[in-house]
Amino acid sequence: MTKTLGKTRDKTRIQRKNTATILEAALDVFSTHGFRGSTVDQIGNAAGLSKPNLLYYFSSKEAIHNALLSGLMDTWLDPLRALDAQGDPLPEILNYVCRKLKMSREFPRESRLFANEIIQGAPRIMGALDAELRPLVDEKCAVIAGWIAAGKIAPVHPYHLMFSIWSLTQHYADFDVQVHRILGQDTDPYPEAEVYLETLFTRMLTPQTI
Amino acid sequence: MTKTLGKTRDKTRIQRKNTATILEAALDVFSTHGFRGSTVDQIGNAAGLSKPNLLYYFSSKEAIHNALLSGLMDTWLDPLRALDAQGDPLPEILNYVCRKLKMSREFPRESRLFANEIIQGAPRIMGALDAELRPLVDEKCAVIAGWIAAGKIAPVHPYHLMFSIWSLTQHYADFDVQVHRILGQDTDPYPEAEVYLETLFTRMLTPQTI
DNA sequence: GTCTATACAAAGATAGAC
DNA sequence: GTCTATCTTTGTATAGAC
User: With respect to CATH, is domain B1-58 assigned 3.30.420.40?
Assistant: First the structure.
C-alpha cells in the first residue's frame, strides 16, 4: 500500500516469510492431529504468531489446510511421473520405489497429512484423486502392463503393484512411531528398508526363465 | 437395583444392548474422524441416543474411546499369535498374510481406528505397543530368523518382512477410499489382492536353489 | 433410564486500538 | 502488521424433572 518500491518489497518479504512460517507450523500440527483435531491456537503457537495475526494471513483454518493440500498432490506424484516407459523395466520400477521411500524419509509430515486425509474419507482431496492421481496411475499401469506383455518383468497385477509400492514406502512415514517402538528409538530404519524393498521387488518382478 | 432377578436381568440386558450400540456407533465415528475430530453428538446420533443418555453409560468421550482401544490390540494380534513355529515356513507366512488381509476386509473400521491412533503419535496406545506388540513381534521374528538360518525360506530382514505384511494388508482397509477411486467404486479389490500378495511373498521367500 | 435445559470450556473468527 | 478484547459457535459434561 505504500508508495515506494522499497517499502512495498519490504512488506512482501515479511508476508512471504510469515506465510511460509505459518504453513510450516501448520504442516506440523495438521499432520499430527488431523484437520479437526488441530486448532488455530496450536498453529499460532508453533509459528510464534498470535491467533488474530495468523488469521490476517489466512482467512480461516480451512484456508491454511487447503493451501497445504493444494500443493501436496503435485509433489506427491512427481516420483511416479518420472517412471519412464522407455527405460529398463526393472530398474525403472526399483528407482520409483527408491524415490518414493526417499519421499517418506524427507517428507514424513506430508505423508501423514495425506494419510490422515485419505483415512478420513478424503473429503477435501477427492477431486484431486480423480483429476490427477487416477489418470496418471492409469497411464503408468498401462506402461507396466506393456512390460509384462513383452516378458520384460514377471506377470503381476499392475494396480496392486502400485498399491504395494505406496503402502510399503509410506508405511515408514505414517507408522513411524510403531516402527521405532519395535526397532528401538535410535534405529534408523531406512537403510535396511531400502535393501529389503529392493530385494522384494527384484525377486517378485524378475521374469522366471524356467 | 430392583429386587427381582427378572427386573435386574432386564436392566442388564438393556444396558448391554445400549453399551454395544454405543460402541458400534463410536467405532464408526472415531475410525472416520479420529478422536478429537469426533463429537459426542455425532456418536449419539449414530447410536440413536441423546447425548446425556450416552454419557449415562460412559463417563466421558475418552472413556468410550478407551473401551474401543483396550479390546482392539488383543484382537489385532490374534493372526500373528497363530503363526506356528512348528509349521511349514512358507505356508505359515502365507496364511498369516491371508488372515491379516481377512481382518482388513472384515474389520476395516478397527484398522482405521488403529491407523489414526498410530499416525497421530499413538498417545493412547503407546503402552500397549511396548507391552503387547513388541514382545510378540520379537518372538515371531526370532522364529522367522530360525527358518532363514535353516534355509527353509530365502533370507530377508524379519522385522521389515513383518512391516511389509502389515502395510500391504492394512492398506486395503486404511486407504480404502483411494483404492476404490483408482479401481472403480464397484470393484472388490480383495480377491485380486489376495492373489497378488500370495504371489509376492511366494516369489520373495522361496529359497533360490541355484 | 431417558429426556430438556443449562452450565462451562474451548475454539473459530472479528473489531478496533496501536 | 500486530496486538488485546470480544463475539459466537460448538462441544463436553451435568442438573434435575419425569
Answer: no
